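From the pipeline queue, job 12 of 40. The input is one protein chain; the requested action is below.

Action: predict structure.
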Amino acid sequence: MTIVALTSRSQELRGWQQAELQQLIGVFAAFSATGSAREWATGTTELSDPQFFILGDDPEHDCVLAIARVGRVYVLEDGAGAVLAEDTRLAPVAEKAIALARRPSLAGLYARIGVAWCVMRSAVEEKVELLLVEPVELLSHVAPQLVAIV
């Protein structure tokens, strides 16, 4: 009989306490609710400090956000590795991450600006068209001979 050693979920999550992990999964839930994250994963640094990753959609599974505990400091990084927050407590870092999840995305901002531009352009065109049509109609009632010239 062959025995295959399986890694348990508790071994995979080593380094994170259960309370910390619950907060981190709450951060993932906020990103998942907005549709910007598909799954989460854990890992360790070269010095065995625990890391928590929020991963994006298929097929690349890009890192959206990472939270690591380096010594006694929790570090929040974006997917590009830029440090967004540091604190000795996890709660403020998790709150900052959840605030980032609820922040409107840049693509959403561009979409709203585009829609506003189209609405304003349409409204201006309607007003200008009315201003151009009414004088011609007025002129046709006052001087029908001049309308033929215009």
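Job complete. The chain has two domains: 9-103, 107-149.
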